[in-house]
Design brief:
four-stranded antiparallel β-barrel, 64 residues, single chain, mainly beta, 4 strands, SH3 type barrels, 0% helix
Length: 64
């Protein structure tokens, strides 16, 4: 699943995000969602989240 719809992402979900500094390279970071930062229902570049380790980025993929 891609990370463009807020309803698909819950606290505790395991996801891949792209950090702001990695947007050019597309390097992904794996982690567990702590907070949802995007308020809108969807976003074309991915919902912005904060991971449990404090990293902030946009969700690229939701892992099952």
């Amino acid at each position: 699943m891609n990370g463009q719809n807020r309803k698909d992402i819950k606290r505790g979900s395991e996801v891949y995000i792209v950090l702001k500094k990695d947007q050019r390279t597309g390097k992904r970071t794996k982690g567990v969602v702590k907070d949802l930062l995007t308020k809108s229902a969807n976003h074309p570049h991915g919902i912005k989240v904060r991971l449990e380790d404090g990293s902030v980025g946009r969700v690229q993929e939701i892992l099952k």
